[in-house]
Amino acid sequence: MFEKYFSERIKNTPSSFIREILKVTQNPEIISFAGGLPNPISFPQEELKVSMNRIAEMYGAKIYQYSTTLGLDSLRQYIADRYKKIWNMNITIDNVIITTGSQQALDLIGKVFINKGDNVMVEKPSYLGLIQSFCVYEANFVTTKLNDDGLDIEDLRNTLKTHNPKLAYLIPNFQNPTGLTYTQENRKKVFEEIKDKDMLLIQDDPYGELRFEEGERIPYIGLNQTEKNLYLGSFSKIVTPGMRLGYIIANKEIIKMLETAKQAADLHSNIFGQYLISDYLYNNDLDKHIEKIKALYKSQANAMVSAMEEFFPSNVKFTRPKGGMFTWVTLEEGKDVMKLFDKAIQRQVAFVPGHPFYVNPINVNTLRLNYTNADSDTIKTGIKRLAEALKEI
Amino acid sequence: MFEKYFSERIKNTPSSFIREILKVTQNPEIISFAGGLPNPISFPQEELKVSMNRIAEMYGAKIYQYSTTLGLDSLRQYIADRYKKIWNMNITIDNVIITTGSQQALDLIGKVFINKGDNVMVEKPSYLGLIQSFCVYEANFVTTKLNDDGLDIEDLRNTLKTHNPKLAYLIPNFQNPTGLTYTQENRKKVFEEIKDKDMLLIQDDPYGELRFEEGERIPYIGLNQTEKNLYLGSFSKIVTPGMRLGYIIANKEIIKMLETAKQAADLHSNIFGQYLISDYLYNNDLDKHIEKIKALYKSQANAMVSAMEEFFPSNVKFTRPKGGMFTWVTLEEGKDVMKLFDKAIQRQVAFVPGHPFYVNPINVNTLRLNYTNADSDTIKTGIKRLAEALKEI
Question: In chain A, is it the N or the C terminus that has fewer CB atoms within a 10 Å radius of its CB?
Answer without folding.
Answer: N
